[in-house]
Amino acid sequence: MTCLAIDFETANERRDSACAVGLAWIEDGRVVRRASRLIRPPEMRFSPGNIRVHGILPADVRDAPPFPVAMAEFLPDLEHGLILAHNAPFDMGVLRASLAAHGLPVPSFSYLCTLQVARQVFPDPAGCGLGKVASRLGIRFEHHDAGEDAFACAEIALAAVRVTGAESVAGLTRVLPLRVTTLPPGPEMPRYRAPGREGIAGRAALSARRQFADAEVRFMIRGSTGNRYEVALEERPSGLYLRCTCMAGRNRRRCRHVDAMVDGDVTDLISENLADVERLRRLIEDAPAGHRVEPERLRRVQAA
């Protein structure tokens, strides 16, 4: 049976937003192969919190292959092997949700969570996060790089094999109170749906709207020639308006600087207010029905 570790990084809070994957194969008690790929997510919306974790920007994946292409060579091993992941429900959720989002069949997968393994074999009051366990075991790696994280995950499993005397990684389930989890075919999660306007969600949206006047949102953007432009969010009777100081913006035409902020592309953001990028997305999503975001071609962000 093929045994390999996997790690995904995501662009935002959605499980089908994978932007990088790393893998590490185990044979004969050691890591024999490593691979990593950048992935272009279906929606080029990167949450600032995710960027702070993995450092991947929209510009890094703009020319990367989509999920089906990036994962094609690895899927046979994943489908027929034992998958290792640290906090495996997250990574398995990304794998299954991404397949389903691209209309691909979701096969059965078998996995073992090395977070659970570490809690049994390497318990510590400080916790058993990937970085903490790797540090205690002397595993050197660059945390939150998908390929490096997959390698560390594999090494933690191998260390557990040595400590417990198990005959293999799969054999850990025979010496520890753990089991291999097998997920049945089919999507793991229901299709993402936009939040409704009724009840608590509706009142929250109206509250966000009332507080808009106190929520100044401005960005300083580097232009293609090095010039600096300001993109500012304004509220007008007809709806939200993103105003840019570039020539196109002054002539009320759509510009790439406005596009970048709506898409969450912070590649050329020099004001470093990443939290406001996420705030902008939420303000646009919470704009009450009947309001639009101008310029006219700048439509409200809709959930897939």
UniProtKB/TrEMBL annotation:
One of its GO terms (biological process) is DNA metabolic process. The keyword RNA-binding does not apply. This is SWIM-type domain-containing protein. InterPro entries: Ribonucl_H (IPR013520), RNaseH-like_sf (IPR012337), RNaseH_sf (IPR036397), Znf_SWIM (IPR007527). Keywords: Metal-binding, Zinc, Zinc-finger. CDD domains: DNA_pol_III_epsilon_like. Residues 229-266 form the SWIM-type domain. It holds the Pfam family RNase_T. One of its GO terms (molecular function) is nucleic acid binding. One of its GO terms (cellular component) is cytosol. It comes from Methylobacterium oxalidis. Gene3D superfamilies: Ribonuclease H-like superfamily/Ribonuclease H.
